[in-house]
UniProtKB/TrEMBL annotation:
Signal sequence coordinates: none
Residues covered by the Gram-positive cocci surface proteins LPxTG domain: 936-970
Keyword ATP-binding: no
Transmembrane segments: 945-963
Top-rank lineage group of the source organism: Bacteria
Listed Gly residues bias regions: 908-931
Name of the protein: Gram-positive cocci surface proteins LPxTG domain-containing protein
Example GO molecular function: hydrolase activity
Alphabetical keyword list: Cell wall, Membrane, Peptidoglycan-anchor, Secreted, Signal, Transmembrane, Transmembrane helix
Record's keyword annotation contains Chaperone: no
Organism (species): Leucobacter triazinivorans
Gene3D superfamilies found in the cross-reference section: 2.60.120.200, 3.60.21.10
One matching Pfam family: Metallophos
Length: 970
């Protein structure tokens, strides 16, 4: 057994192994601080203070350092070395917490990466492990403890630090993962030993460092100890998600072989049939969720003899139900998720069915992993190892002659090696007709979604789609997923007028001049003018008061204060400082005035981080935000988001409400979802939602009616996956659409496999979201100096095909014999101009009020004649914001009818309605929103309804009143 003289024993003494949370190993070894001295005769403790290190790169006797690729590091500082803390400060400076290792005394073991790696160009990250000598244990020893002083600062992904244990020369097992700052601390852990163990060797691993921070270690004490209660590690998901009536599997590790645990679900419900732990210390068992369980959280408590209790919070969601139809009917979809996909493989080589992990394992990265559109299993044609010549053909789809349809599929096409390759998609009809729909060329098309129109020829009754790929060995590859056929939306009419408009920008981060002089003038110059704007996070660089002052000054100077409603979401940069999470949240809410828009009943300390407004009385806009981020510990790395049960429950209930009403929803959140829009495959953008990832993705999977705006990455909208339909559930035919807002400041694009690079000279980017009768259109614009706007691209998201009645506020039926309706003498009017409002189907002599919405302005009143009809000329106020509005006629009983009108800037038109169209609406209950039967004459769809329930009308009225009160308060 190796022992070092106990230097400084009068100062240090033998360490007591006390305190701390229990930890476990996935291989069945227990890790537990807080252990007593063993009952049997124990081996003498081993101590090391590193004072005997002969030079910076020579470890004390018995210790060793294993490193890889340290060639770019400074001499004397390659991998783990041995220096005094004074030498660390003298060499690298006192900033960045280097000088605060008060527990370190004399020589310490140190790995310093900051400023000690290349900042650009190709290089391999460093791995370095500091190994203690093997500690020999006496027969019968049940556990070994290790204690040490530590000064660790976390760097950005993929850098990580770990304490591992090697028992009797076997593969190292994890004792502790260090993934946040742990500065100037003493750590103490215990590791269970298998029967007959003879020695333990501990290692301090600093892995994948790439110009990150540091780790310093001193005063190591290793000793035998008694086993402590185990704390099982949950390996099946820290916050699992289930639906009522379903079952989930819970898997644990870190138990002792044969140990029996007990599991209790909710209020005393014992989970039956839990087996004892395996020889490896693992156990898995099913947990059934009661069929009548209401949505919410359900605690599962793990306990038992020798087990420290662990609680797993299970998020229970309502069953998803069937997908509603959309205004763009989907005739067929296949996501390759079946155990045996119904596709025919022909040719000399067969397409494979792999998921992303299996694809990378089989063929490596080289941009194969950036297929972010893919969900679950996808089809792969790969020539890396051999020639490929194969044809993958779908099952037949019934079609009708003359049908005008569209084929869509997720596609990841890579050209490699200079060898010849070719790819094409062919429609094969049962009448013998074959039509080549698309051919791929000699350029990469990463993570794209081709949308290919095709017509069904006369006489054809079915079609199959053949995907052909041929390439020489060492050439490229093709991956496809989510193949579907839809009856596409018709082209949007040139004169179509949106019923709701939202402007969006994000990621200012100090680029206030661009915001003031480019983005805001550009958005304000678009027509029609929006009344609502969303600033989707990272308004500042680090959340300081002066940065908020500069941001708000630019926002107002750029006419941002002309928007009736200004919604701001909190980003990661709002937390970037050392004042504490709560202080940054308070500052954000106060400076952006978001408290006034917070969800009703929200925690006052967080009110405004999440909420909802009804844009122009038509489009529900929801937003969510992180309730905690510890920047000093995480040094800018994720996860960035923590959602309380209150916020999550609010989002769950509001999404359920709008889904039941058949409404599209716009959801703003600064942070991104793994493998979704551009760049989210990169390490830095993974795991933004941390432990909340599973439950929020499961929730959003149930709501394909939601369009999600995410920011954070700054990746350019020119990329193919600027927007994606995200199937969080790979078996679902539909998923929510996610759109990347890009950024006001620097745009990024890919660099190598995992990195990113700035795109020089890229104009700042903003979005406009517009609701039309059959689609929600999001358009990305770049803005030159002075606000000159250039449309980059747009995405149209189909709307739910039916809008069911609001279950909370049912619609009073319209009298089919004598419905009330109104009409206008035109579909557009100048601000300050006049308009004639006419109506019929009202009660005789009924008194009526006439208003301009969505910010209600009283235009006048009228009285119906003996036949229930009226006609009234009204004047539109000269200061009315140009854009989409509604004329609302309120009846004596409080119900209302409405018709759409576009208000032009003064002087743009004749100053009055032009008589070119008529808007009409049948009566319903509730004021302030469009009643069933509204028409938008400017689309040419006179008499066509977007059939909103009266519950939506009441909600619109509430939103309008709230906005009116807010404006009055301002």
């Amino acid at each position: 057994m190796l022992h070092e003289p106990r230097r400084r024993s009068d100062r240090r003494g033998t360490r007591a192994i006390t305190g701390g949370a229990l930890l476990a190993l996935t291989c069945g070894l227990l890790v537990a601080p807080g252990v007593a001295a063993p009952a049997h005769a124990a081996a003498e403790p081993y101590t090391q203070d590193f004072e005997t290190a002969a030079s910076p790169d020579q470890a004390p006797e018995g210790w060793s350092v294993e490193s890889s690729d340290t060639r770019d590091m400074r001499e004397g500082w390659k991998g783990w070395t041995f220096h005094t803390t004074a030498e660390v400060v003298e060499t690298w400076g006192s900033g960045g917490d280097r000088s605060s290792f008060s527990k370190g005394d004399g020589l310490v073991a140190v790995l310093h990466s900051d400023g000690n790696r290349p900042t650009s160009g190709p290089y391999t990250p460093v791995d370095s492990t500091l190994w203690a000598p093997a500690y020999a244990v006496d027969p019968g020893a049940e556990a070994v403890s290790v204690a040490f002083d530590s000064h660790y600062k976390q760097g950005q992904a993929p850098q990580q630090a770990r304490l591992v244990a090697e028992i009797d020369g076997a593969d190292p097992v994890l004792v502790e993962q260090f993934d946040t700052n742990r500065l100037d601390r003493t750590h103490e852990y215990s590791v269970d030993l298998p029967a007959g163990a003879q020695s333990v060797r501990f290692g301090w691993q600093y892995l994948q460092t790439s110009n990150n921070w540091f780790w310093m270690v001193d005063d190591v004490v290793i000793a035998e100890s008694e086993p402590a209660d185990v704390a099982p590690t949950v390996v099946s998901g820290v916050r699992p998600v289930a639906t009522a009536g379903s079952a989930i599997t819970v898997s644990l590790s870190g138990l002792r072989a044969g140990q029996q645990i007990e599991a209790t679900l909710g209020e005393g419900g014992t989970v039956a049939g839990v087996p004892p732990a395996t020889a490896e210390g693992t156990v898995s068992f099913p947990v059934e969720i009661p069929a009548g369980q209401q949505p919410g959280t359900l605690p599962l408590v793990i306990s038992g003899p020798g087990v420290a209790p662990v609680t797993i919070e299970i998020t229970v969601l309502a069953p998803a139900g069937e997908d509603a139809g959309t205004t763009e009917p989907q005739l067929w979809w296949d996501g390759f998720e079946a155990a045996t996909p119904e596709w025919q493989n022909d040719g000399d080589a067969a397409w494979e069915y792999l998921d992303r992990a299996a694809s990378v394992d089989a063929y490596g990265t080289d941009r194969r992993h950036t297929f972010t559109r893919a969900s679950g299993t996808f089809a792969v044609a790969e020539s890396k190892l051999a020639d490929f010549d194969g044809r993958l053909t779908s099952a037949p789809l019934a079609v009708a002659a003359g049908d005008e349809l569209e084929l869509r599929f997720d596609s990841h096409y890579l050209v490699r090696g200079g060898g010849e390759q070719a790819a094409a998609v062919v429609a094969v009809f049962d009448d013998g007709t074959e039509t080549e729909l698309v051919r791929f060329g000699d350029a990469d098309e990463e993570s794209a979604q081709p949308r290919i129109p095709f017509a069904v020829p006369a006489g054809a009754e079915s079609v199959r789609f053949a995907f052909t790929f041929s390439a020489l060995a060492g050439a490229g590859s093709w991956r496809i997923d989510d193949v579907e056929v839809v009856r596409p939306l018709a082209p949007l009419a040139d004169d179509a007028v949106p019923t709701a408009v939202v402007d969006v920008f994000s990621d200012v981060q100090g680029a206030t001049a661009r915001l003031q002089n480019n983005v805001l003038p550009g958005l304000r110059g678009l027509s029609p003018a929006a009344s609502t704007i969303v600033s989707n996070g990272d308004q500042t660089g680090s959340g300081t008061v002066s940065q908020y002052d500069a941001y708000l000054a630019a926002l107002n100077a750029g006419a941002g204060d002309h928007y009736t409603t200004r919604v701001s979401t909190i980003g990661n940069h709002e937390f970037y400082g050392s004042n504490g999470s709560a202080a940054y949240i308070d500052r954000f809410l106060d400076r952006t005035e978001m408290r006034a828009l917070g969800a009703e009943g929200a925690d006052p300390a967080r009110g405004g981080l999440w909420g909802e407004v009804l844009v122009d009385g038509e489009l529900p806009l929801l937003w969510i935000g992180s309730e905690f981020h510890d920047y000093p510990s995480q040094t800018g790395s994720g996860p960035f988001v923590e959602l309380s049960d209150q916020q999550f429950g609010w989002l769950r209930d509001r999404l359920a409400h709008w889904k039941a009403e058949g409404s599209p929803v716009l959801l703003a959140t600064h942070h991104v979802f793994n493998d979704s829009v551009s760049g989210t495959y990169a390490n830095f953008y993974r795991g933004d939602y941390g432990m909340d990832t599973a439950r929020i993705e499961a929730l959003l999977a149930q709501h394909p009616n939601v369009t999600i705006l995410t920011s954070h990455t700054h990746w350019a909208p020119e990329l193919n996956d600027w927007s994606v339909e995200q199937r969080f559930d790979p078996t679902a035919a539909h998923g929510p659409t996610i759109v990347n807002t890009a950024a006001v400041t620097t745009q990024y694009g890919p660099s190598g496999d995992w990195g990113e690079t700035g795109i020089g000279g890229a104009d700042p980017v903003g979005l406009r979201v517009e609701l039309f009768e059959d689609r929600l259109r999001t358009t990305a614009y770049s803005f030159a100096a002075g606000g000159a706007a250039t449309a980059i691209k747009h995405i149209d998201v189909a709307l739910p095909a039916e809008r069911p009645v609001d279950p909370v506020d049912p619609v009073d039926p319209v009298d089919p014999v004598n419905p009330a309706e109104i009409s206008l003498n035109g579909d557009a009017v100048d601000a300050g101009g006049s308009l004639t409002v006419s109506g019929a189907g009202f009660a005789a002599d009924e008194r009526l009020g006439i208003e301009l919405h969505s910010d209600p302005v009283v235009l006048g009143s009228a009285a119906a004649d003996a036949s229930g009809a009226f006609s009234k000329s009204v004047t539109i106020p000269a200061d009315t914001t140009p854009g989409a509005h509604r004329i609302v006629v309120t009846r004596a009983d409080g119900t209302s009818v409405a018709a759409a009108i576009t208000v032009r800037a003064a002087g743009d038109g004749s100053g009055s309605g032009d008589g070119s169209g008529t808007g009409s609406s049948a009566g319903g209950s509730g004021a302030g929103g469009p009643a069933a039967g509204d028409s938008l004459a400017s689309t040419g769809a006179a008499g066509t309804a977007i059939a909103w329930g009266i519950g939506a009308i009441l909600l619109a009225a509430g939103a309008v009143l709230a906005l009116r009160r807010r404006r009055a308060a301002e």
